[in-house]
Amino acid sequence: MNFEKPFVLFLLIALMPTQTLSQDQFRDQFFTSGNARVHFIEAGVGEPVILHHGNTGSVNGWLRTGVFQALSKINRVIAMDARGHGKSDKPHDVESYGKEMSDDIIRLMDHLDIDKAHIIGYSMGTRIFAKALTNQEDRFLTAVFGGFAPDWDWTQEDEDQVKLRSEQMMTNPPQRLVDQGQDTTALATLVLGFSELAVTEAGLKSLSLPTMAIVGSEDFLYESVIEFSELLPRMKLVVIEGATHGEAFGRPEFVESVQEFLLSSSGN
Predict the structure, then answer these.
(1) Up-side HSE of residue 91: CA atoms within 13 Å toward CB?
(2) What is the pLDDT of residue 6?
(3) CATH architecture of 26-152+200-263
(4) Global pTM value
C-alpha cells in the first residue's frame, strides 16, 4: 500500500477551509425500510461512507460537529436517522426495532445502489451496525466503532438493565428530551430490542476488514472499548485525551482520525 498518497491527501484536507453546507446541498430524503419511513441526508462524491448516530441523537449531531461536512469533501457521505429518532418514523412496538434497525442500514445501501460502504457509528450507532457488519461483512469496506463496544454474548444482566432503562424512560423521561419534543415512548420501546443486536465473540473475531475504535479517555465506556480492541488485535485504537462520551465525536481528533483511517484504507 502506498502510504505517501493518503498522507499528502490528509494534509490537503486539513488545510481546506471548513464550509457550512446549505440545506439544498444535503436535502432531506426518505425511503421505506420494512414497516418504517427512514430519513437520511447525503453529500459529496467518492467512496460511500454511512454515518449512524447514538441514542436520542440524529443526523444533526454529525452536522453540528462538522463531521458530515469534513468527510463529504472527498467521500459520498450518507447520514441516517435511526428509527425512533430525528425525522424517521417512531413506532411504539418492540417488533419494529431490534434487528430491523440493523437491517435499515443494508436496505438504505440497496435503496441507493451501494454495493459496499465505509460505516461509522457512535454509541448506539455502533451497537446497531455491528449486527449488520457481522452478518454481511462483504457489504462493508471499513468500520469505525465510536465510543462503544458491540454487545457480544448477551446475558440476563444485560436484559435486566435494558428493561430497567425502558421503564425509567417511560415513567420518568429526562426533561431535556421532553423539551426537545422527542418521542420518549419510542425511545423507551426501542431499547427492549437491543438483545437482537447482540453479536458473538466468534463473529467479531472473524472480521477481516480494516477496523478502528475511537474513545475518549474520560468516557464511562472507556474500559469496555479497550477490552473490545484487545479482542481484535489488528484494530486501530484512538484515545482522545480528556474527552467524555458526549464530547469525543465533536473533538477535532475524531474527524481527523477518521479521515486518516479512510484514506489509508481507500482502494483509490
Answers:
(1) 20
(2) 33
(3) 3-Layer(aba) Sandwich (3.40)
(4) 0.90
Look up cell 460511500; give the residue: 48
Q: What is the DSSP string of 6-46?
A: HHHHHHHHHHSPP-PPPGGGS--EEEEETTEEEEEEEE--S
**pLDDT for 141-163, tens place per residue?**
999 999 999 999 899 999 999 99
Report the distance separating Cα 222 and Cα 237, nearest Å.
11
Q: What ranges do the domains of the chain cover?
A: 26-152+200-263
pLDDT value of position 136: 97
Contact (CB, 8 A) for 238 and 249: no
**Given pLDDT bands bounded at 50, 70 and 90, which one contains residue 175?**
very high
Grid coordinates representing 117? 460502504
Which grid cell is 231?
Answer: 479482542
Instruction: Give SS3 for 144.
Output: strand
96-105 per-position pLDDT tens digit: 999 999 999 9
Task: For residues 135 and 5, give the distance between their C-alpha atoms in angstroms, rounded to a whole number.
Answer: 32
- Strand ordering across the sheet containing 236-240: 29-33, 36-43, 76-80, 48-52, 117-122, 140-146, 211-216, 236-240
Residue length, the chain?
268
CA distance 262 to 266: 6
Distance (Å, whole) CA 117 – CA 56: 24
Picking from 73, 15, 72, 46, the residue whose alpha carbon sits closest to that of residue 141 is 46
pLDDT of res. 267: 58
Q: Whole-angstrom Cα distance, residue 268 to residue 266?
A: 5
